[in-house]
Amino acid sequence: MGKFKNSDTQVLQDPEYSRLNDFLDDNSNKLKQLSRGDIVEGEVVDVNINNGVVIVDVGYKSEGIIAGRELKSDTLDWTKLQVGDKVLVYVVKPEDEKGQLILSIRRTQQASAWLSLENAKKNNEVVEAVVVESNNGGLIVEIGKGIRGFIPTSQLDATRVYANGVRQVGRDISSKVQKRLNSLIGEKIKTRIIELDREKNRIILSEKMVTQARDIEKRTETLKKVKEGDILEGTISGITPFGVFVNAQGLEGLVHLSEISWDKVEDIGVLYSVGNNVRVMVIGLSDGGKRVAYSIKRLQEDPWSKAISKYKIGDIVDGVVQKVVPYGAFVRIGEGLNGLIHISELSEKLVKDPGDIVKVGQKVKVKILSISSTERHLGLSLKETSGVVGKKKMDEKELAEAVNAAIESEVK
After folding, report:
1. Higher pLDDT pick, 49 / 405
2. Is the domain of 328 the same as that of 402?
3. Are 158 and 212 in contact (CB under 8 A)?
């Protein structure tokens, strides 16, 4: 029905038609156009508790019906509604097969919850979820009444899923992971939203986004106050052939193999496991904290320093040959003390093969010619204990250089 035009002068002279034009000009008198998903305010016109039906007028061409489970809500008790009450409703169907407008109170609450989730995703807010189920892919959680989401295993904090906090693969690992996931049912987990699709009813969540942000914050705070030489409490976060990674107050760094122990480390796994608590000393900070070096051994007493304290250069001591090499022989003279008899110090005569002079296991008397705290090694002489000094003797500097070169060659 359209508005009357000015050309209809005879009609417009009738006051009844003039009032009809005014009625059509008033938008409040026009019928609403509703679509599924709309949330509108209506007025209660009837409440039938026995039949479980509420009739609401929302200004549509027909009154709307709310029935069955669509009446259930945690925020509104429909049985206490009275005629004339204003209520927010969700449009389920603008028109069903009977031409009726189907409304919902339950879905209004759910739509409000989705709106809150959309805001939480937009503002990167933390969302608390309760674990209700688990499967081999992760956890099904409830975020609000009737709204569920999913946390993939890869988005859970690794300490929840794996016994040692390090991700692993394998069939036997899979069954262990499933048991750990099952044990989380009923727990509350703080998450952030990765993906939100209301149309598909799909919500993907991440716990890691929360824990990583917390770690970054903690790391930033630690970096502000930490300096080389500081001692921190930490946890072993990873083990590699070249050392162990330690997370100390959010600041992850490497304890190189050479900084784990004063003794030679053959197998790190024998000493440490992921998750072990350790005390470390900060020995290196660079690139704004991107590269952090820690030491464990520097917080332990150096057995070599203690052992060497009773010896001095010039002492003649007993030792046992440990190894014979082309450039000399390694000798142990005490607990944790090793020294090298350079080939030039084996005899006053020219020596082509050290094996002609000494054998492994042989007990010898040697003279201490040099002590290197840096290399933790001694320069020894066999020929000087015989009371005969050769015609050509290396000076102290030459001997130290020869010993260091030999030791470096041995390490390589």
Report:
1. 49
2. yes
3. no
